[in-house]
Amino acid sequence: QCVAVCPVGALHERDYTWDVVKALQDKSKKVIVQIAPAVRVAIGEEFGFAPGTNVEKKVATALRRLGFDGIFDTNWAADLTIMEEASEFKERIERHLGGDTSVPLPLLTSCCPAWVKFIEHNYPDMLDIPSTAKSPQQMFSAVAKNIWTKEMGISREDLVVVSIMPCLAKKYEAAREEFSVDSNRDTDISISTRELVHMIREANLDLQSLPESDFDKPYGDYTGAAVIFGRTGGVIEAATRTAYEWITGDTLKKVDFEDLRGYEGFRAATVKVGDLNVRIGIAHGLGEARKMLDKIRAGEEHFHAIEIMACKGGCVGGGGQPYHHGELSIIRKRAEGLNSIDTSMEIRKSHENPYIKALYEKHLDKPYSEKAHKLLHTHYYSREKV
Ligand code: SF4
């Protein structure tokens, strides 16, 4: 048992690598894996790469050698999350501007389970502001267990979904009751970046010498918008790229929203979306988040949308990553690594991901449809007295 402690104070780390090994040895099961955006720019540090180096293709090879049956990317599901979150934002803001003041604003992005739990405990009167869209981890797993199994002709009990996350709170998220069907979880096992490092070392593999390979299709391709989920401000920037085009009907000339970037713990920016001045707030670290929410609650600040990440710097600084000992320069290099991937991509807006479009056409009708709601949305609980 590892004794590391989550930096958000939520959890003691539990090591599930042995559960993954047992699943891989069970030949009656298919075992697939997804890796989160922030993992690819940090795991290399344990194998001699500089912080921020993107080693995703070497990790794909390592996962294949470890015996996984499908090597997929949580980034793909981050694009899917944006489809639902941007739709929800468009709907809420249009109804609000149309005079319906009962519509809750700001919309709060909901990818960070530590933050979701924090608001459930501490701000139960504000539970209507988080987007109901599931996190990318849970969207990926819901699609895998409910759609991919049918395409593969297997039952959900015969599929094991493993996630590799920069995060310890993701283990808790995977275990939340609403993400299971008859006790069969959507995400069966969530392990951290550090746990994957142990597995790679135990298998006597070295990322430096491994060749590169691609992720599998159809859940392995992503856009630049997806990969910036791993740094502070990235989820709201990705959502803004899509919401802008959907609200205005225009094509964005510049997809980089520089005003939403930076490392101040609590920052705000106004983004022009057609005739609208959309006010956006961003916080990372729970102390900063508390400040932001207290101001919103007191009516001292008004936002249309906010992003909160429990860890400093966002997931690049997550509690499951190689230790950075609070060194901001390491966190920044990882974030810059994600920005470089984003700028190198041909497609940088989630709604242009062809595999996402195909999923809607084949299975979900359109974003925010009834079918999409059933599969991709969730709800929150007051835990004030728990
Ligand atoms: Fe997990 Fe931290 Fe990322 Fe939140 S910000 S999802 S706690 S790694």
From TrEMBL:
Its cofactor is [4Fe-4S] cluster; [2Fe-2S] cluster. It is found in: Membrane. The keyword NAD applies. It comes from the Bacteria. Keywords: 2Fe-2S, 4Fe-4S, Iron, Iron-sulfur, Membrane, Metal-binding, NAD, Repeat, Translocase. GO terms for cellular component: membrane. GO terms for molecular function: 2 iron, 2 sulfur cluster binding; 4 iron, 4 sulfur cluster binding; ferredoxin hydrogenase activity; iron ion binding. Belongs to the complex I 75 kDa subunit family. This is NADH:ubiquinone oxidoreductase. It comes from Propionigenium maris DSM 9537. The chain holds residues 200 to 585 of 585 of the full protein.
